[in-house]
């Protein structure tokens, strides 16, 4: 069923840096948002070159024919107005990942809205309450639609942003391409992927191309906004050639921390301040143990002089964990998948053996003994309640747990881990780990809580919190 991938140069799992050439970056994408008050996103089929020399363009599903889709850029406090037109052959929706949205703008099909049918459109009006690095992506059969390229960056600026000379957004993705350089469609829905680590790609892109090269003023201060659009792979991005300071994760400020390697699970974001003290800054993807080129920033004297002083970075403090006295704890026992201990689970009211669930319904994972779906309620929570999702990852796989409509503090059982730093919206849980995700249920509506390894979400690892 799973197509055997032949090991070509595009296989970044097995091949090192040698021989991969840089493509130049579409600077329009980096530079600016559209200068209009409302945006139009058209989801459609487009063939583009994903940065592999000499190969045919890849038929993708994209917003406005670009990968990533256009940068949507507004200020904190603005309303984001976007008309989405569906020119795909299938229904779609758009989700504004990490935004504390109003519920009916959250883009979850058959939960917060009807899917946008082919030929139809939908107007999203999204309030932007926080600044930072966010993204948008398709949420109908996301495991296929995101893998085909339906995603883009959403950047929200504010007066208290640290001053920088350059502000670059880098969207990182791994694609699974076949021998012809086309999206490997035969393996969509592969039970093997769904029960293991999800759909892992074999071709790495940053902003839709391979190993892009950006230019910056010598001595400049650079803000890098890294966004993972991968279906399932957990990236590790190494920053070489300059000291990097992590200033925000999942859009929200954290305590500044010097880092050399940043782990990015699917849907996570990391904002870094990097000072261009040398000739270049080199980004490599190192999760496989073999460094793979991801991108670089080259000092270019023709751009003129850097203006920003390299003073210590001053940030607002992350909000403190509230007093936990009246907290309601919701246990979430995650089971299932390959090499797991789940033998049966309840699906649509019936208890079924895992084999039947897998064969007939493609359900492979469960929360608290129930195979999840967008119509399964995990808990009903009164508005304003302080909540802890008390999660035990009792599976053999890591999971990137994402809550819609809210941001949470993270308390882990790892004594070496720091006290909560900043608020998060997606948290990577290693196999066998536990975590308490603490949040105030202050946003009324039906909100998904799911694994952002998109195959896992489709296969049962997602349910709804009914708030208010
Ligand atoms: Cu970014 Cu429900 O997902
Ligand atoms: Cu989300
Ligand atoms: Cu998962």
Name of the CATH first level of the largest domain: Mainly Beta
Mean pLDDT: 91
Strand order within the widest sheet?
A: 10-9-12-17-14-15
User: What is the C-alpha radius of gyration, as a whole number of Å?
Assistant: 21 Å
Distance between the terminal alpha carbons, to the nearest Å?
Answer: 44 Å
Write down how many β-strands occur, each being a DSSP E stretch of 2 or more residues.
31
CATH fold type of the largest domain: Immunoglobulin-like
Task: Give the low-confidence spans.
Answer: 1-36
The CATH homologous superfamily of the largest domain corresponds to Cupredoxins -  blue copper proteins
How many discrete structural domains? Answer: 3
* Helix run count: 5
Largest sheet: 6 strands, mixed
Annotated CATH architecture of the largest domain: Sandwich
Structural class: mainly beta
- Name the helicity range: under 10%
Entry summary:
The chain has 468 residues and is mostly beta strands.
Give me the secondary-structure topology:
Elements: H1 27-31, E1 38-48, E2 58-63, E3 72-75, E4 79-86, E5 94-97, E6 121-127, E7 132-138, H2 142-145, E8 151-157, E9 166-175, H3 191-195, E10 203-206, E11 213-216, E12 221-228, E13 235-240, E14 244-249, E15 252-259, E16 261-264, E17 269-275, E18 280-285, E19 292-299, E20 328-336, E21 344-347, E22 350-353, H4 354-361, E23 365-367, E24 377-381, E25 386-393, E26 399-403, E27 409-412, E28 426-429, E29 434-440, E30 445-451, H5 454-458, E31 462-467
Parallel strand pairs: 1-4, 3-8, 9-12, 11-19, 20-25, 24-31
Antiparallel strand pairs: 1-2, 4-6, 5-7, 7-8, 9-10, 12-17, 13-16, 13-18, 14-15, 14-17, 18-19, 20-23, 21-22, 25-29, 26-28, 26-30, 27-29, 30-31
The structure holds CU-O-CU linkage and copper (II) ion (2 copies).
